[in-house]
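Obj: model holo form, ligand = zinc ion.
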Amino acid sequence: MAEPSAHIVDVLPFGGPEKPLAYAVPAKLKGYVGPGALVRVPLLNRSRLGLVCEGLTEEIDPKRLKFVHDALYDDPVVTPDLLRLAQWLARYYAASLESVLETIVPAPVRAIMAPKTTRLLALAQRPAPEEMDALARRAPRQAELVKFLEQQSGPVPRGLLISRLKLTPGSCDALVKKGILKEVLQDEAREAYTDELAEDEALPTQEVTLTEEQAAAVADVEQSLEAREFRPHLIHGVTGSGKTEVYLRALERVVDEGGSVIFLVPEVALTPQTVGRLRSRLSKRGQKVVVWHSHLSAGERADGWMAMARGEARVVVGARSAIFAPLKDLRLIIVDEEHEPAYKQAESPRYHGRDVAVYRAMLCKAVCLLGSATPALESLYNVELKSYRLNRLSRRVDDRQLPTVHLVDMKREKLSSHGAATISNMLADKLLDRFEKQEQSILFLNRRGYSTRMICPECGYVAECPHCSVTLTYHRSDNRLKCHVCGYQERPTPRCPKCGCSKYRGVGFGTQRIEETVQKIIPRARIMRLDTDTMSKKHLFRKILSDFRTGKIDILVGTQMLAKGLDFPNVTLVGMVDADIALHVPDFRAAERTFQLLVQVAGRAGRGDKAGEVIVQTFMPHSPPIQYARRSDFEGFLEEELEQRREFHYPPFRHLVRHLFRGRNPEKVGFFAEQWSRRLEEHLEKLDHNVEIRGPVAAPLEKVKDTYRFHLWYFVGNVSKILPDIVALRKDFPMDEDIVDVLDVDPVDLV
Ligand code: ADP
Ligand code: ZN
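Output (holo structure tokens):
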């Protein structure tokens, strides 16, 4: 045995202990078992799949170690930068290394790489007649099995035989032992790689001449690519300024030079146009694009993953988890619509795809392009700090005008219409005008359903979810009251369930009611609604979008999912039915979200040759985010908002960590949250850490699915420095088993 350390590796078994374990590498596997390799190792008398990590363990006597059983592939499937990324992710987001690695090497990939084998049985040899007679007498079931298999054309799964013929496993084995049957092992069949999105929206590639601003941005990005250094760029381009073209130029360049690219989008289903453009550009170069989205089958996922690990595909486009693509020689990471909250994962590990993208780019010395018409305040602040380079695209392609924005004060509208106004006179007039000109309109409202809640004007009763602290929404299409938090449903009663009053009715309005109202205003208009209620019906979503594109629909009513990057040239009017919704959410980002939503929504109008108009209905026409958005004044908004954030120590000046406690008994949950906060405070005083604790208080959404929620906020300067301490302290803090707590770093969901 040469130097013993050369034969030891650290393996983190999946579904095993939290820490990597040391194993010895047998001579036959030498050279195959480096960091990032998938291996099988013995653990507690079982063979388990595990990932080889980088050397972490100390001196160990190799003689006492168990051997790695096998390596699944000749090459490591996880790249070295991904292994380091995993370690950072686990630390920064207070997640277990195991959960992080399970995210990085997704389940179907692990399952396929360790194929499940099915045990089949077949006849080995036909027994002699007298042997058959003897068998029929002593073991009639076994005889039946033999007869059955004689009639089959091939091997039959053992499990199926046992259940169908009501056999014991022992009788099967006995026949195998006697040499009458034989066992055949078969790898489970896997699904073929089909590429559904490929057929979609394969847009023709027009060669475009870059605008001056685009050309300047591309040149700047190319300079960074040449430098082969870690460089983040913020591409801040107004809606319709051609950001995608800038991404594609950079991407083509990297691909031509042999490097790899990750292209993140908030939601693949909502960006078929981008995917289509990317595909047609790359297919010209004979390059395969892996499209990574949530509707892939297990087989597709595994094939796409392996294509990247083997270097057969060098470009992936996908939602946040595509950031973990096992691409080698990664030189460019693009994050489109970088401000989107959808980049944050809601379950552990609770990572933010954009932030992970920046970190991975740093590890790979890659260029990172963050693009948006409405960048997150954090990103804009990074530009101020000179951590990010800024590339501005301030004008639309072909110098198309940004739309004119009109504010409608709904307080006045309400007075003049003597009651609940949902569509103002101005909006109604403009809708009619567009309809007559055969131009299209989009109406936005971030509230599904028909009415917001059911109330009784006599006794004040409000229909609430029995399991959550929210009111129920009335959906007219299926005549149900629904909870938008947990999905609970009930049939509405015609009278108030409390006092029996017949004036019990729905108030407030959702997308269904807007659809109905507009239909009354313009009976001949073809109106369609697009929200998650329609999304649930397969393919309907895509059909509606394509009908809208081809002019079969005049007016589209939808929730904010419509605001994301869609490009319909014939849309000349956009109506924001209630601009105030996001302002009322108890979230320090409420103003930012309102501003972003308004700018994005407005960006859907006037993308073709005709100028666009935007009608914003609000009860608060003078609130700063609405005023700044109306003027498209980013600098003004940024300055005012940063001032506020600075004063209250909110991000980007501090990081925020949310510590949520949940349990069925509210008193108990509150008690433990309180105890913990005291404990933490004492501890932090000793350490002289720069942390401010706020809370505990009941969460705004206090009850969800019958569990009560309390939370604490930590305002911290340096997450990686402080969080491990908090996690260690938490491990020593005894809490009843029915209380669950969750740490969420840089949260986007604050309720
Ligand atoms: P953004 O993502 O900034 O909103 P897009 O990249 O979707 O904008 O571009 C808007 C439209 O302009 C697209 O239809 C695109 O094909 C087109 N476009 C982009 N760049 C140019 C250009 N230089 N010349 C002509 N058309 C362009
Ligand atoms: Zn509920």
